[in-house]
Each structure stands twice: as structure tokens, then as C-alpha cells.
Amino acid sequence: MATEYDDRSPLKTSEHAAATEGYRDAPPGYTESENMFSNSLDDRTIRRHFIRKVFVILGIQLLFTFGLVCIFTFSTDIRVYVLKTPALYYSSLGIFIFILLTLTCCGNVRRKHPWNLIFLAILTISLSYMVGMIASYHDTNSVMITLGTTVTVCFAIMLFASQTRFDFTYCYSFLLVLSIVVLMFGFFCIFFYNHILQIVYGSVGALLFSLFLAADIQLILAKHRFSLSSEEYVFGALMLYLDVINIFLYLLMIFGGDR
What we know:
The chain has about 260 residues and is mostly helical. The chain is built from nine helices and no strands.
């Protein structure tokens, strides 16, 4: 089941875009009404520390998720049990939606250690179970091909987004509109399903979240006009994690066959 998130607050310009402005001695304080996007990443030490935390968290999330996918795929007993207990899937879905809304809408929870990491861990476990269950409906070869393709594609996108001069962070409005189009296309495919539509839908969805991944990478690296606040390392890891998982699920539609 592919998930999409559209909570994109208006961005402020990053401070390094203006040569006449300097970095303040300490990151600005936050209130519940303040924007999660700010200009506090001009200092290289703060930026590197922020990027390191985001990618360490992301790496742990992906290792856990894809490890669970491999267990669900290779273990016949676990696969049979998971397929016979759909209630666990719907419970995980409810937990995932609740935690996602909490982390997205509640800035105090999202920035308060260790509750932000606890909530993120619960979200990762619930989404990992759902992804593992979806993967268990497909044969092992399809899942492994999709997994390898996802790793290759995401690594290439991250490398490209970190090196290119093109600013993908300007594309969020376009991506939001494209997300609505993909959502409507998904409803259409439910009522008029065939294998060709599944491949097309999977390709468009994978392209959409590949663009989201490129934009989110640049938002975290703060090499362009817009940047993510240094306090939002949990939100940054969450954005990248959802991008990668959605790419995997849409690619699974392409390589998974008529499942």
C-alpha cells in the first residue's frame, strides 16, 4: 500500500543565499505556531551534524524495514501467518496514520527528545509490518529485484540531487498537484484494473516520489535557496524514509506482476 504525504509548509529562504547575512549564535527558539523551515543551517558544523543525524536515523529505519521484508519473503511460516491475520495489517495502518499525523502536526512532540525518536520508532515498526505483508503477496524473485532496484535508484537520486545545481525545492507546488493526479489515477485503477494500468500507475508513482526524494535531499543538505531547520532532524528522516518506501512499493507494482 503506497502512502503519500502532502504536509508541505511554506518555506523560508536559507540564510546562505544572502551573502550579507550572518549566522546567529544559537538556533532560534520554537513555538507551536512557528514554521518548521528556517534559515539556521548556514554554519557548516551545525549542518553536518544535522545531516549526519538524519542519515543515521534513515539508515536504521531502512535496515529494519527491508530486513523485515526479507524475513516475510523468505520464511514460509511467517508469510502464511501474516496472510491469515489481516487484522494486524489494519491495526498497523491505524497506528501509522495516528503517529504520522502526530509527528507532522505537533511540533513540540516532533522536536522533543526522546519522544520524537520513540514516536518515529513506532511509526517505522508499523509501516515495516505493512510493507512486509504487501511483499509477502509477491514471489521472492520479484521482491528481491524490486529491493535491488530501489536501492540503486535511491542512491543515484541522492547522488544527483546533492551535486546538481538545479533547485528541486522550487518544485513542491508542482509535486503537490502531481500527487493529487496520481491519487485520482489510483482510484481509477481500482474500478478499471488491468496489468497495463498497473505498470503505468507504478511508473508514475515511482517517478513522483523520486522527485520528492530529490527535493527533500536538497532541503536537508541546504545547498539551495530553501532548507530545513536544524531542529527538524526527525522530520527530515521521516520525509526521506517515506520517499524510499513509496518508491519501493510503486516499483513492486511494476515487477510484482498481477498480484
